[in-house]
């Protein structure tokens, strides 16, 4: 499934997002995986000071972390990188 289509699905239903889809969308916005410590996957964006934490819980991303990501995208006007 294309990243744009998955991103629209993520916006429409942030409570039911597969962790793998969330990670691919986060990376498509320019975030890079900095480290993994336990279940915490920490992502950093080269233009932002803030980091993004994502957790895999039974194959799903936590909804509040999806909402944090969406707020970062909106606050900093982040766009999808060219594939």
Distance between the termini: 13 Å
Structural class: alpha+beta
What's the gyration radius in Å?
A: 12 Å
CATH architecture: 2-Layer Sandwich
In N-to-C order, the SSE pattern is HHEEEEH
Q: In total, how many beta strands?
A: 4
CATH topology: Metal Transport, Frataxin, Chain A
- Mean pLDDT figure: 94
Could you say how many structural domains there are in total?
1
Low-pLDDT segments: none
Please state the overall shape, judged from the principal axes of the Cα atoms: globular
Specify the number of helices.
Answer: 3
Helix/strand layout:
Layout: H1 3-12, H2 19-28, E1 32-37, E2 40-44, E3 51-57, E4 60-61, H3 63-75
Antiparallel strand pairs: 1-2, 2-3, 3-4
Helix pairs in contact: 1-2
């Amino acid at each position: 499934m294309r990243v744009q289509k998955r991103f629209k699905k993520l916006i429409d239903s942030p409570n039911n997002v597969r962790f793998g889809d969330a990670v691919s969308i986060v990376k498509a916005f320019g975030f890079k995986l900095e480290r993994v410590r336990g279940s915490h996957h920490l992502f950093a964006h080269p233009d932002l000071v803030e980091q993004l934490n994502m957790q895999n819980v039974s194959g799903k991303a936590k909804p509040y972390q999806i909402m944090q990501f969406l707020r970062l995208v909106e606050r900093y006007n982040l766009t999808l990188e060219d594939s």
